[in-house]
Amino acid sequence: MAKKKLKPTPESIAYDNYLSRTGFAKCPITTALIDMDGVLFNSMPNHSKAWERLAREYGWKHEPNEFFLYEGMTGAATIRLMMSRIGRNDISDDEAREIYAKKSKYFIELGEVGPIDGAAEMLNSLRSAGIARVLVTGSGQASLLDRVNAAYPGVFSDNLKVTAHDVKHGKPDPEPYLMGLKKAGAKPENAIVIENAPLGVKSGSDSRCFTIGITTGPVPQEQLSGNGADIVYPTMRDFADGITRIIAARNFSF
Ligand code: MG
Fold first, then answer.
1. What is the Å distance from ligand 1's center to 164 Cα?
2. Residue 73 Cα, ligand 1 centroid: separation in angstroms?
3. Pick from 201, 197, 203, 229: which is nearest to 215 by CA?
């Protein structure tokens, strides 16, 4: 560890606060646990449209942009929440699956979604720093999961992916990120979580990883910091630029 003292950065201050909240000692980053929707793909607008189409069909009342807030939840959990609003608290797993299949179909009909601007740079910066990259998504949307390998070739090996099918409890439960740590053989103090959604941030923060929130959609920054993000960036490019400072916060004295 270098002896010289540097001027504090937002990243070094955020890391100090993280060490206070967790009680961990300063240590390097080995692993990045990376969300998919809204982090790798600009898929949330279409997810929201697909949910809104279902809402019209079933008579679910909802606020504008409300479905952006449920990002990270499993499809079944969102369906149960919305069905309870029309007095249906008795949805079977089969019925939830059927409705989710419909939602997936509507999502596909909206066409292919593009990558998040800056995501490729972010993944490259992590690789250059020797940080293992692990996919941790609440999604079970096959059309997108299949596209991860095509859009980001060679980034995620199959044994370093957590999807809706790997966990019992989706985000905001910490299980998905704890499962990511387990698959990577990493400890929370050595990992960072990269998230764009309030429930995903909560999941990451409760897994005790240093949790980075990036606003890539209509959800305001305060929703991410309020749910436990250790630091929030306004765009993916800002985060990609911040990675060297996040790493420096671990290696130098401020
Ligand atoms: Mg997301």
1. 13
2. 10
3. 197
Q: What is the 3-state secondary structure (H, E, C) of 123-188?
A: HHHHHHCCCEEEEECCCCCHHHHHHHHHHCCCCCCHHHEECHHHCCCCCCCCHHHHHHHHHHCCCH
Closest CA to 134 of 212, 215, 194, 73: 194
Q: Determine the distance separating the centroid of ligand 1 and the alpha carbon of 43, expressed in angstroms.
A: 9
3 pLDDT above the threshold of 70: no
Q: Does the structure show a pLDDT above 60 at 251?
A: yes
List the shell of residues around ion ligand 1, using CB closer than 5 Å.
Answer: 35, 37-38, 196-197
**What is the value of pTM for the model shown?**
0.92
> In this predicted model, what pLDDT tens digit does every residue of 22-68 receive, in sequence order?
999 999 999 999 999 999 999 999 999 999 999 999 999 999 999 99
Q: How far apart are CA 27 and CA 5, in angstroms?
A: 17
Q: Point out which residues pair with 115 in neighbouring strands.
A: 41
Ligand 1 centre to CA of 214 (Å) is 9
pLDDT of 2 reads: 52
Q: How far is CA 36 from the centre of its chain?
A: 6
pLDDT at 211: 98
pLDDT over 60 (residue 1): no
Q: Is the pLDDT of residue 12 over 60?
A: yes
CA of 68 from ligand 1 middle (Å) equals: 9
